[in-house]
Structure formats: structure tokens, C-alpha cells
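Example for tutorial group B:
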């Protein structure tokens, strides 16, 4: 397929999402500006104290997580495909008197725009499904990490993306090892399901074996791998809130999240 067309379609949709998400309860911009972190327990516990550490945040949207790490003392750079998202991230960085930097590019082209290496490379919650092939992604991560640097991903589980959520109830429609692109067109966005914007999106499924093998082939050593039943985000149908305030399936039939931590040797 024409990957340029797919990426352009996705960029246009994400550009539309910026204004909708910035006004949404999901992103709670007022609380964020008043000092509330946008980070969740998984990533905070996994990465610990990042004071003085350099961090590259891949597919950062309009930078709330990037800026949350910056507030914690990390020296942050965020990368995103959407020029409108990067513009808002830069605006927030200035308004909050932080020192993060933002770069607008396709995440697969990060090494064409950024030459320095980082102590930490981070990505989270709904990022790798926008990429057709994880091998160049993993290679880029290795290029941007210092020796001894940490890569960390917390992401929705591949099983969750086997379902078509544009119908109710969701149907298991897509293959776990599916290589073909998935195109969906629907009204609204996860940040505001009542929005009248039309989301037009190309995505790709990636199995856990593909994710892990891509990182290993790029020279990273996996130091931690976990799967979780509970998500901090109520974005799948019929989830229930647990005692920790996270969301999980009533049946716990399959995990909703996974975490991987890796080191560049």
C-alpha cells in the first residue's frame, strides 16, 4: 500500500484531534496546568527518579507526558507526527516555564532530525499500532539510546486490537499476526466519543513476539516484561473500575496492557 498516503491520512486525523483533546475531560488540561501529572503508576514505578536524566518521548501527542517528566527534573525531547500537536506542546512548554524540546516528524524518521543520544527512550498507550514495521522503529530506538540507556514501553495488549470497536458489541475481526493495514473511519475520538469529528485511520497489528524480537534484533536486552489486566484508561467497552481506580474486563479474559523494559548494552 501507499505508506505516504496512510501517514498523511493519520497526520490529518491527529491534527483534528488536537483541538478536541485539548478541550476534553480525558486530558483535563486545567488540572494539568495546575500541576497534576498526566503519568500513570506503571510508568512512574518502572522509571523511578529521572532527575537530571535525558529522555526522548516518542509519539508524544501534545506533550503532557513529556512535560510531566520535565516537571520531575528530566531533560526531555518529544517527537510527534502532528504539527498542530507539536505547536500546542511548545505553547504549553512556554506557558509552564519548562525546558522541553519538541520535534515534528514521523517517528520512524527521528534519527534524521535528532542526533544526540538519551538516557531513556519512552513510549506509551496507543503508539506502535500506527507503524507498519517495528524493525526500523526498534533500530531507531537503539540509535538514540546511550550505552546503558533504558527503553520503556507500556502499551495496549495486541489481543485488544483484534477487535473491531466501530460495531456494538465489538467483533473479533483482525488477525493477531495480521500484516495488512487496518483502515477505520468513524465519528468521534477516544478523548471525546461525543465529538463530531471524523477519524480516518490506518493502523497495523503487532504481536508480542514481533515487538520483542524487533527490540532484541536491534541490540537491546529485555530486562522486564509484564502483562496487566487493568488499564488506567476506560477506552474499551464495558470495562469496570477496580479498587485502584483502573479499568478492567469483568471476565479478565485477556490482558489489556503490557510493559517492556530494555537496556542497550
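The residue assignment follows.
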Amino acid at each position: 500500500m501507499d505508506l505516504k498516503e496512510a501517514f498523511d491520512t493519520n497526520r490529518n486525523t491527529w491534527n483534528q484531534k488536537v483541538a478536541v483533546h485539548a478541550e476534553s475531560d480525558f486530558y483535563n488540561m486545567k488540572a494539568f496546568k495546575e500541576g497534576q501529572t498526566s503519568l500513570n503508576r506503571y510508568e512512574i514505578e518502572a522509571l523511578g527518579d529521572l532527575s537530571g536524566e535525558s529522555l526522548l518521548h516518542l509519539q508524544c501527542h501534545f506533550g503532557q507526558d513529556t512535560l510531566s517528566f520535565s516537571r520531575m527534573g528530566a531533560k526531555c525531547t518529544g517527537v510527534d507526527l502532528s504539527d498542530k500537536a507539536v505547536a500546542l506542546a511548545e505553547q504549553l512548554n512556554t506557558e509552564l516555564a519548562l525546558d522541553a524540546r519538541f520535534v515534528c516528524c514521523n517517528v520512524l524518521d527521528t534519527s534524521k532530525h535528532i542526533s544526540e543520544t538519551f538516557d531513556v527512550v519512552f513510549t506509551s498507550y496507543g503508539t506502535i499500532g500506527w507503524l507498519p514495521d517495528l524493525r526500523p522503529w526498534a533500530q531507531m530506538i537503539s540509535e538514540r539510546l546511550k550505552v546503558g540507556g533504558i527503553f520503556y514501553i507500556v502499551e495496549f495488549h495486541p489481543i485488544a486490537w483484534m477487535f473491531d470497536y466501530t460495531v456494538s458489541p465489538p467483533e473479533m475481526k483482525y488477525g493477531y499476526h495480521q500484516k495488512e493495514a487496518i483502515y477505520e473511519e468513524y465519528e468521534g475520538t477516544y478523548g471525546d466519543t461525543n465529538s463530531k469529528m471524523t477519524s480516518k485511520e490506518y493502523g497495523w497489528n503487532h504481536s508480542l513476539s514481533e515487538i520483542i524480537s524487533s527490540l532484541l534484533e536491534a541490540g537491546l536486552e529485555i530486562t522486564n516484561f509484564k502483562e496487566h489486566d487493568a488499564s488506567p484508561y476506560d477506552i474499551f467497552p464495558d470495562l469496570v473500575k477496580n479498587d485502584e481506580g483502573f479499568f478492567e474486563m469483568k471476565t479478565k479474559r485477556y490482558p489489556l496492557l503490557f510493559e517492556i523494559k530494555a537496556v542497550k548494552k
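Residues 3-22 form the longest helix (20 residues). Compare this with the pattern of hydrophobic and polar residues in the output above.
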